[in-house]
Amino acid sequence: MGKCNEAPLGERLGSASAARQALQAWFQAGSAENDLASAARQAERRAIFAARAIRLAERETERAA
């Protein structure tokens, strides 16, 4: 037999469901965080590329002058 102080089955199932939902939310938040980090890295790479393109255009302009 179970212990006298154990929660009824319905409460335990409710707690398990809440725990599962919390775990899913935690994983989704981690996934969103990874997506944001990836987007930030991509934006940084694009900014570096744009800065290089600007410097190249400036050099070409100076040579043409």
Count of DSSP helices? 1
Indicate the percent of residues in helices.
over 70%
**Strand fraction band?**
under 5%
- Largest beta-sheet details: none
Oligomer: single chain
Low-confidence stretches: none
Principal-axis shape: rod-shaped
Average pLDDT level: 88
Order of helices and strands: H
Q: What key attributes describe this structure?
A:
0% strand, 65 residues, 1 helix, mainly alpha, single chain
Task: Annotate the secondary structure layout.
Layout: H1 9-64
Your description of this structure?
0% of the residues are buried. This protein has one helix at 9-64. It has one helix and no strands. With 65 residues, the chain is an all-alpha fold. 86% of the residues lie in helices and 0% in strands.
